[in-house]
Amino acid sequence: MSDAIVFERHGGIARLRFNRPEVKNALSLDMCRKVRDIVQLLREDVTCRVLLIEAIGTDFCSGADMGDLARMTNGTPAQRAELVGQSALEFSHGIFLGLASLDIPIVCAVRGYAVGAGFQFALSADLVVASETTQFLAPMANLAHSSDHGESYLLPRKVGELRASQILLLGERFGAHEAEQWGIVNWVEPDGHLETKAEEVVTRLAQGAPFALRGIKSLLRQSRVSSMEQQFENELEMVARCAATDDFVEAIKAYSERRKPVYAK
Fold first, then answer.
1. Residue 265: inside a domain, yes or no?
2. In what order do the strands lie in the sheet with 174-175?
3. Both 223 and 186 in a single domain?
């Protein structure tokens, strides 16, 4: 099971891969622990410039391991409530609040099934590349429980409350092209081109000005709760901080010299 999560870092790019294709990359509790710990590690790693989340096999992630969920149905109602609540607090909160706090761009490459927590990984990304084979599903209502990965927060902000209600209340599958139209996916690619496009995106981000990219992501995050006036103040502060970096000088110089900038490592 230790190989069910593959994590690598190279050239400023961190890669997290689900590697349990025989069960459509269903997330066991052990896998959740490892992902949570990796996210915490990335919060403290100043050398990484971008995180790519992807999977080995024909499916991205089919959600929680149903065997683990079945074991949570034992016991009294109070015991079940405590067990499920503890699991959500430890894993869902640890993983997805952790991802939300990362200041580096997150890219998700999705194919096949992206269900439950698998869907939420895509929602948690800043940029999403999807294969034409992708099928998204938020199945919680079908399983007699509510969202517990942050879907009720992120979905309305991405697709609007009406569409979020459709996705969460009806628990219906939808494909990559619908997800693109609704604002969940940036690019839909032929299945054989998924990795190529994802690599193109993360390479471009890794070659960008790291402080500026972190600043842009921070501003987008702040805009969720700021007034327009406050957001202008946030932008003023951030652009001044960017101007104080060597990367700003290099970018302007490179533009004048008609060459690609080379930013600090």
1. no
2. 113-115, 135-137, 174-175
3. no
* Cα angle 163, 158, 241; round to 5: 170
Task: Determine the structural domain holding residue 38 and report its residue range.
Answer: 5-206
Could you list the pLDDT tens digit for every one of the 265 residues in the chain? 459 999 999 989 999 999 999 999 999 989 999 999 999 999 999 899 999 999 999 999 999 887 777 777 788 888 888 888 887 777 888 999 999 999 999 999 999 999 999 999 999 999 999 999 999 999 999 988 898 889 999 999 999 999 999 999 999 999 999 999 999 999 999 999 999 999 999 999 999 999 999 999 999 999 999 999 999 999 999 999 999 999 999 999 999 999 999 998 7
Q: How many domains does the chain have?
A: 2
pTM score: 0.94
Q: Are 130 and 202 in the same domain?
A: yes
In whole angstroms, give the CA distance from residue 223 to residue 112.
33
Q: Do 107 and 164 lie in a common domain?
A: yes
Q: Judge if 52 and 80 occupy the same domain.
A: yes
Q: Kindly state whether residues 59 and 125 are assigned to the same domain.
A: yes
